[in-house]
Amino acid sequence: MSPILATAGWSWTGALCGLLVSTGLLVTWHRLPLRRRLTLADRVEPYLRDATPPSALLGRTDARRVSARWPWLDDVVRRWADRIERVLGGADSVRRRQLRCGRPADVDAFRAEQVVWGAVAGGVGLVVALVVVLQTDASPIGMALLVLVATGCGVVAKDQALTREVARREALMLVEFPTIAELLALAIGAGEGASGALERVCRLSSGELSHELRLCLADARAGLSLPAALHLLADRTGLPSLARFVEGIVVAVERGTPLADVMRAQAQDVREESRRAVMEEGGRKEIAMMIPVVFLILPVTVVFAVFPGLALLQITV
After folding, report:
1. pLDDT of 148-178, one tens digit each?
2. d(CA 50, CA 46)
């Protein structure tokens, strides 16, 4: 073995030992009694703990949600989640998108998930950086930047995943909307009231829109008026067509106009909007299909058409 390879091997062994020692020191530092500060919840919990097991209906949450075995891990995740919140912000946007996804609005849990995604992506980037450094003479600074970029991409990917989930759910609601509106029109035409028609349709149907209508009925049973519960439904979903549908129902209920006709008209409007969306998507796809035709197929066709003539001219000359 050459002296250069032996020196490189010893250097990587020393780097690995240094990494292990620093990791052990960091874990020891986090496990010191000085670092384990009791929070207000930890101090009050022994006096509020009941002898009987808590009921599942109370929905009691534990402060150590991430890890009950390693409480310091939960503190680390919470600290990094607070830093992500300070850097990125947008808590209102996250809360609104969670409601549009049909989830409870919990920004802290979402930030914790972003920390986990960033840690996983950073771990993958670290493995890739170690492989690249072992195979080539890459710069350690560039590899450190690769790990940081991978971590940031993991955090942003979680946010984009939430946005895609919102778009997917709203697309399903738009597909279900005309059928739900027709069922409501049939129920109201058969003599049901607005609340009775909503309850009947929710009982006979399933899907994302039916779930939102069940939440609307739950709000109405909890004490809100039906128009107020419908407005909350429109605010949760954020769909313009559903907002128009809610406005039509509210106006029909308040002014006494025929509700079945309003629902049939709203369903027809949603179908027309879906048809227009399909036509627009087809137009965009048609334009995208022109790219390979113009830049790939057309040049090959021109070459096949011109090359025999050029070859004949060269033979003649």
Report:
1. 888 889 888 888 888 898 888 888 888 888 8
2. 9
- Residues 224-234 pLDDT 10s: 888 888 888 88
- Alpha-carbon span 103 to 123, nearest angstrom: 29
Whole-angstrom distance, CA of residue 223 vs CA of residue 129: 58
**Tokens matching residue 167:** 């778009």
What does pTM read for this prediction?
0.63
Closest CA to 102 of 225, 283, 226, 237: 237
Which H or E element spans position 256?
Answer: none
Record: fold of 171-274: Receptor-associated Protein (1.20.81)
Domain boundaries, the chain: 171-274
State the Cα–Cα distance between residues 308 and 234, nearest whole angstrom: 66
Compute the distance between CA of residue 95 and CA of residue 69 in angstroms, rounded to an integer.
29
- Alpha-carbon distance of 163 to 53, in angstroms, equals 38
